[in-house]
Design goal:
Number of domains: 4
Mean pLDDT: 83
Low-confidence stretches: 1-18
Protein name: histidine kinase
Keywords: Kinase, Transferase, Two-component regulatory system
Organism: Haloplanus vescus
GO molecular function: phosphorelay sensor kinase activity
Number of strands: 18
Catalytic activity: ATP + protein L-histidine = ADP + protein N-phospho-L-histidine
CATH class of the largest domain: Alpha Beta
Number of helices: 16
Shape: elongated
Largest sheet: 6 strands, antiparallel
Structural class: alpha+beta
CATH superfamily of the largest domain: GAF domain
Oligomer: single chain
């Protein structure tokens, strides 16, 4: 037989005397050079090629041809990926793959050398058939879990972790939540004392790499494959020696990880099937959490719509009844002053409608925040408010990221509230409104009559008001805009006894 003989496992050429021996081997043996040309096929490999192509060719005809031309169906498969990786790393590897033209599963072993690659292929007819059946059974089991409408999300995740532990042979399986530098166990299957709700430093875990890279991390033997991770508590203190974890993505951000691990290293790497299985589970968890997020948003929107309907029907009815009364009187008497009162009621209804629409829009997340000068925004807002003689004192030099239009609306509502509710019997003349800086935020206060202690907890609720003619939407709108920006709001008292509203977590 012509062509270069394959290299052995230690990288040396196979002695010529093994030529006939390889032909008697019931596994397919191929030899490729560095350019992927066939250098050798034994009798079994030759038969496999003929069966796959449906052509009768001699072994000599195959030598010198590119394997990707001989068997083009191998392109873009696990076989090609592993072969190219073995040639690049010069490391032997074993894997299982399915070859579609033969509808057969093969256990493949690759032995690379500087001059080429030797490929041993064992057809696992019975084992492969059983493997496919097992995989189909696992997928059906997974489907039954995720399709169970009576199970809670936590129960479904627990069942997926149970399946993963069984297939991977690991003792631990967890769904985690990552917030900043903290890692919280949410659903746990563990033989130890780890419980849901436990929190550790993210930097102590292998999951940190998953979170940072947003990619699945596969480590059959952590010490051998990622020695830089052995300094972490996960290995040094907890003894985690093998790990397979995938990121959970919710609303385009990393929510946490879905992972499996054990204190014993694996003797063989995780298979493609095992990695794919964990990826599938992680993606379902991501979708389920995304769905829960959307459903919660819908519940909030429905509650907001119901709240709006109640407020609109209640708050519009009074000025509408007033307008009807004055309109009837105008018809009877022709009194122009009655029509002025009708116009005033209509203006009141327009204000209520504007407030309700503003409140409806305020709950939306800030999609395109920009860097802005809060002092400049506050000054612009003051120019848009009928201040009725009140004075603004500004001591705010702070930048923030947000929606300038909605933040101007926030300041306008604060100023209107101060003028309308902080003034005494003589109106707003003499009232001073101050805007100043806080650590991590700012405040808006006045020296007016203030907000009673009993009302401070509810004053930010939409629809709550202490005035007979108020809608209670102004400060509710302020709270919603602040929440949309991730800020915290607190109602307190200024030094002079007036109202003071503080905003923190401003960045």
């Amino acid at each position: 037989m012509t062509g270069e003989l394959p290299a052995s496992a230690d990288g040396h050429p196979t002695p010529p005397r093994l030529d006939g021996v390889l032909d008697r081997v019931t596994d397919g043996v191929f030899g490729f050079d560095a350019e992927w040309h066939v250098t050798f096929v034994n009798d079994c490999a030759h038969a496999l090629v003929c069966d796959a192509t449906g052509e009768t060719v001699t072994a000599e005809d195959l030598v010198g041809r590119s394997i990707w031309d001989v068997l083009p169906e191998l392109r873009d498969t696990t076989f090609e990926t592993e072969c190219r990786a073995a040639m690049r790393t010069r490391e032997s590897v074993t894997f299982e793959t399915h070859y579609d033209p033969l509808d057969a599963w093969f256990d493949v072993r690759l032995y690379p050398s500087e001059s080429g690659l030797t490929v041993w292929m064992h057809e696992s007819a019975e084992d492969g058939h059983d493997s496919r059946e097992r995989r189909e059974a696992v997928l059906r089991e997974m489907y039954d879990v995720i399709a169970d409408r009576d199970a809670t999300f936590e129960e479904q995740v627990d069942d997926l972790l149970r399946i993963g532990q069984r297939i991977l042979g690991t003792a631990y399986g967890t769904l985690s939540r990552v917030r900043g530098d903290k890692y919280t166990f949410e659903v746990v299957r563990s033989p130890g004392d780890i419980e849901a709700g436990d929190t550790v430093d993210l930097s102590a875990t292998n999951c940190e790499r998953v979170v940072l890279d947003e990619e699945t991390l596969v480590l059959a033997d952590l010490a051998a494959e990622a020695p830089e991770l052995t300094e972490r508590a996960g290995f040094a203190e907890w003894g985690i020696s093998c790990y397979l974890g995938t990121p959970v993505i919710v609303d385009d951000e990393v929510y946490g990880t879905f992972c499996f691990y054990d204190t014993d290293p694996r003797t063989e790497t995780f298979s493609d099937w095992e990695v794919t299985l964990v990826d599938l589970m992680g993606r379902w968890v991501s979708v389920a959490l995304e769905r829960e997020l959307v459903e919660e948003q819908l519940r909030q929107q429905n509650a907001r719509l119901e709240e709006f309907a109640t407020m609109v029907s209640h708050d519009l009815r009074n000025p509408l009844n007033v307008a009807d009364g004055w309109l009837d009187q105008a018809r009877e008497t022709g009194d122009a002053e009655s029509l002025d009162r009708v116009e005033s009621s209509h203006e009141r209804m327009r204000e209520i409608i504007d407030d309700v629409l503003a409140l409806a829009r305020a709950g939306r997340a800030v999609d395109d925040p920009v860097s802005l000068d809060l002092g400049r925004v506050a000054a612009d807002a003051w120019e848009q408010v009928d201040t009725d003689g009140a004075t603004l004192t500004m001591d705010l030099e702070s930048d923030a990221t947000g929606d300038p239009k909605r933040l101007q609306q926030l300041f306008e509502n604060l100023f209107r509230n101060a003028v309308d509710h902080g003034s005494g019997e003589d109106g707003a003349a003499g009232l001073t409104v101050r805007v100043g800086s806080l650590v991590g935020g700012f405040y808006v206060e006045d020296d007016g009559v203030g907000i009673p202690v009993a009302d401070r907890e509810r004053i930010l609720e939409s629809g709550y008001t202490t005035a007979d003619d108020g809608t209670g939407l102004g400060l509710g709108l302020v709270d919603d805009i602040a929440t949309a920006h991730g800020w915290s709001v607190d109602v307190t008292e200024s030094e002079s006894g007036g109202a003071r509203i503080e905003f923190t977590n401003v960045d």
